[in-house]
Amino acid sequence: MILSNTLCRLPRQSQAVVALLCLWLAACSAPVKKTDIDAAAPLPSYSLETVQALLLEARVAESPRKEQLLIKSAEQLYLLGDQDWARNLLGSIEPDRLPPEDLWIYTRQYSDLLLEQEAYFLAQSVLMNPQLTAQWELMPKATYVDLRLRRAELLAKLGETAQSVQEYIALDHANLPAEQQSQNQDALWQTLMNQPHEQLQALARLSDDREQQGWYQLAALSKNNQHQLESQLRGVDDWLMRWPGHPAANRLPRDLQLLRQLIEEKPQHVALLLPVSGKLGRAGRAIRDGFFAAHYQSVQAGSPAGRISLYDTNLGDVQSLYQQAVDAGAELIIGPLDKDKVAELALMPALPVPTLALNRIEQPAGLLPTQNLVQFGLAAEDEARQAAQRAWIEGHRLAMVVAVDASWADRSALAFINEWQTLGGTVVEYSKFTGKADYSKVVQRGLLIDHSNQRAANVRNILGRSMEFEPRRRQDIDMIFVTALPNQARQLKPTLKFHQASDIPVFATSHVYAGEPDAKLDSDLNGIRFSTLPWIFDQQSEEKKAIERFSNDPAFNRLYAMGVDAYHLYPRLRQLREIPNATVFGATGNLQLTPEGHIQREQMWAQIRRGLAQPLPTVISNEAKLSGS
């Protein structure tokens, strides 16, 4: 690429260069009397002097030489570590003035900068320039592949699925080397699998391109049957009969290639190690109910029933129960749930059978992950990190963190802060409240309204008389992250409104929503955005319908969903382990396996509007576009 990603950050340009840049950007098209440029001595690479000379020459040059010099100046500034000036220079160029080769260089250089700065919508306008599109046949193959791949990846990120697929298909026809072509098809497939089943069906109906239709139909049937291996395989076999010669028929996506092996290797005896009595009994029973709801639906769909054994971990030592299950012939263990019991298993160097623990612990320093152990938990920390990522993508940079006084909230707040600072954001204020009617005080302190009130009191004392005064909040906050339960958040949001902070976007974890529609009660949550389980909005799930009929308690929605996902995860652990970015689209979120053996969840997003939770797009929102990204 034109711009290196590994740069040495050098001292910023001198006042003379800054002045010249300002002059150029203010009046780059003004006529200037031509002056001689002293080129007797070669200038050093990537120096301020080089930039100054290039800009001086550009001021008197004609197009396209002027634009070429600006592109070179921007490259030099980037390599000197000054991306903002480089971006300003490139933004001053009119691409229509550029000959083809210079347009390609400009597009790669400018899009590099914009993508690095996460200015996705501006990068889209640069990469989708119609002038560029008209020049595909003129480009060297490497340039063609590079630019189309940038377009495909960016369009996928922005949720423009149909356009992204078109770009990937164009690359598929570019006679790529075998390995690169496989990578391209994998990326195309991942883009499709990130879309809801209904959208894939709609795209298949609307597309008039035969090849695209084939991809959409294959993705739709795969997504629709993902939880039933046998049904998914039957659907793939039927698709292959109807689409001979399609690129995907010549090389099925890797997750579909594994289906027969997954079915053959599916454990026929599974042991559940759960607390069904004691203090964790209700949680354990909720997971059990979700697991069996998924099992019964699978059997009704034609899957072998197999054998499931249940062991109450409240009644014995977990290692003894584990060995008892193995001795009874269990080919896979699901559980335990208690964190301390998971830690016992994690201290062992290896386990005799594959094990899906239903909690997650931090691996002790110096210890390798336990062989055959996968950890699946509903950690609030994961949600907090996703909140930071979402807020950052939407263009926010200055955060206030408000947490209830609870250990889970502390962990969430810390995870948010760490992720936010890693991304480059600033935590302006971190406040905690106990939930004992101190919301107003906490908000006043956090927004510095108490300082404003104190200043007013000082003025009254000086003047010796009363005066009209309206307190003002601080202006250096552009988002608030909240870790709170529903009853606490319902008091916090109106308090923010009272203190003139209702315009600040509020992000939260799933704990902020009770899980049941209540427009009257939740009207005080209006505007809050929160990550949540797909289970909450899934009205088609047969497992959810079964739960609602027999053992529904909204307080345990997360655990019902976890039980369902545990059932669907275990036959696909090999798939998650062997295929990069392989994903199970579950009731608790999109699930992937990390190299450390942890199931990583990406939840969906929702917002309270008129007291009701409504799903939000998982892609970059228009608010990011409006905020300048």
TrEMBL record:
Any one of the GO CC terms: periplasmic side of cell outer membrane
InterPro entries: LpoA (IPR007443), Peripla_BP_I (IPR028082)
Ranges annotated as spanning the membrane: none
GO molecular function, one term: enzyme regulator activity
Keyword Isomerase attached: no
Keyword Membrane listed: yes
Name of this chain's protein: Penicillin-binding protein activator
Lineage: Bacteria, Pseudomonadati, Pseudomonadota, Gammaproteobacteria, Cellvibrionales
